[in-house]
């Protein structure tokens, strides 16, 4: 999210998490964070700061200044860095880009330092590519860290999402397919997605 009025409209839906990009190369980068964070966040909505290969001191400063609840690390951050941030009391979500050759065993060292994982599709940018990966690969995930599914999710995928039975699937990251432009969300479409996902499946 990037624009105050758009954020206010979204918050009416009471989302569990709202993400804010603190990566200057992203078109969703927040240039006026103080204005954006003037919105009224209800207790159940957590503010997520998304960082890419940022220094720990800068992440901690942003979380303190802006009251972030969760840090999402979307670069090449080390397991040690995740643990260091988590030891400060922050909730840490580490994102991984999943391609056809991705091995979930490669993230074992991150288990002790993360509260959540996020699995996104590989693409030219650290995130927000609007691409999907083969969700059947999630069957190979065996750790006990809850994960978010990300990458090209749209309303048309609701039945596929319902069919996913992985016990560690915790949430869905809605982004590119719900935008008018980078950072400006189609709130009505998000509302439609939430309502259809929560509705009783048709027999």
TrEMBL record:
It catalyses: N-(5-phospho-beta-D-ribosyl)anthranilate = 1-(2-carboxyphenylamino)-1-deoxy-D-ribulose 5-phosphate. Pathway: Amino-acid biosynthesis; L-tryptophan biosynthesis; L-tryptophan from chorismate: step 3/5. The keyword Isomerase applies. CDD domains: PRAI. It is an enzyme of class 5 (isomerase). InterPro entries: Aldolase_TIM (IPR013785), PRAI_dom (IPR001240), RibuloseP-bd_barrel (IPR011060), TrpF_fam (IPR044643). GO terms for molecular function: phosphoribosylanthranilate isomerase activity. One of its GO terms (biological process) is L-tryptophan biosynthetic process. Keywords: Amino-acid biosynthesis, Aromatic amino acid biosynthesis, Isomerase, Tryptophan biosynthesis. Residues 14-195 form the N-(5'phosphoribosyl) anthranilate isomerase (PRAI) domain. Its EC number is 5.3.1.24. Belongs to the TrpF family. PANTHER family: N-(5'-PHOSPHORIBOSYL)ANTHRANILATE ISOMERASE (PTHR42894). HAMAP family: PRAI. This is N-(5'-phosphoribosyl)anthranilate isomerase. The lineage of its organism: Bacteria, Pseudomonadati, Bacteroidota, Cytophagia, Cytophagales. The gene is trpF.
